[in-house]
Amino acid sequence: MKLVICDDNLEDLAKLKRLLQIYRRRCPDIRIETELFSDAAPLLQQIRREEPADIYILDILLSDLTGIDLGTEIRKKNGKSVIIYVTSSDSFALDAYNIFAARYLLKPVDENRFFETMDYALFNSGTKTQLVYLVKTKNGLESIPYPEIEYIENCSRKLEIHLVNKDKITSIYMRQSFEEETKELLTAKNFIYVHKSFLINLNCVRKLSQSHLVMNSGASIPVSRKRIPDVKKEYLLFVSGQYH
């Protein structure tokens, strides 16, 4: 797959290159051909004469053109290329939306946000077949495929991520709420909150009772009283869907 980065600030271009190198070390099975541009003009010519790349990471505030101009040219030829914008200003967010940009990252680009964006881009370009959940631990950033997560617990303002193989990964101290830290998993549809401190994978539920769930690992997860009706409904819908 081909990825293009364009930023006329050489320091920012070098930082994006470093972040991409770190990401590639985390995902050695993915082959990414990378091309860097510090000038938008030659990139514009390339877009016009060649097949578009799979992923573009574009600065918006370029010297001669804008990243929006480049994005418009890309969209004239290809609606499938994933476009990611990086910028020091949020004033172009609506323009980026109109070009169907995948992400809009503010500088300085946060490492976690960059990795999550790359996961999203690769998944949507068809290169990755499964989503991964990124979590900061004392040993560094961990990348966990969604299907490997059995449940997540909020334990003393740290995430305890329990895996289907019975391993456990503990995050560093959370700066955001439990819901903010874990809400991205809800896009997978098989993850639901059953308690203010528990998010579970419905694929890993062995049994549902009035007050708790029994997971495949044998763990007993409490279901809060106010969530019981919704949890029962979601569980039954999920189970019935497995047989259609």
Helices, strands, pairings?
Elements: E1 2-6, H1 10-26, E2 33-37, H2 40-49, E3 55-59, H3 67-77, E4 82-87, H4 93-98, E5 103-106, H5 111-124, E6 132-137, E7 140-145, E8 149-155, E9 158-163, E10 168-173, H6 178-182, E11 191-195, E12 198-201, E13 205-208, E14 212-215, E15 220-222, H7 228-241
Parallel strand pairs: 1-2, 1-3, 3-4, 4-5
Antiparallel strand pairs: 6-7, 8-9, 8-12, 9-10, 11-12, 13-14, 14-15
Helix pairs in contact: 2-3
Structure, explained:
- There is one protein chain.
- The chain is of the alpha/beta class and 244 residues long.
- 32% of the residues lie in helices and 31% in strands.
- It has 7 helices and 15 strands.
- It has a 5-stranded parallel β-sheet, sandwiched between helices. The protein has a 5-stranded antiparallel β-sheet with strand order 10-9-8-12-11. The protein has a 3-stranded antiparallel β-sheet with strand order 13-14-15, with no helix packed on it.
- α2 runs parallel beside α3.
- The longest helix has 17 residues, at 10-26.
- The radius of gyration is 21 Å and the shape is elongated.
- 30% of the residues are buried.
What oligomerization state is this entry in? single chain
**How many DSSP-defined strands?**
15
Cα-based radius of gyration, to the nearest Å: 21 Å
Low-confidence spans: none
Span of the ends, CA to CA: 35 Å
Q: Can you count the helices?
A: 7
- Portion of residues in beta strands equals 25-35%
> How would you state the average pLDDT, rounded?
89
Structural classification: alpha/beta
Helix content range: 25-40%
Shape: elongated
Order of helices and strands: EHEHEHEHEHEEEEEHEEEEEH
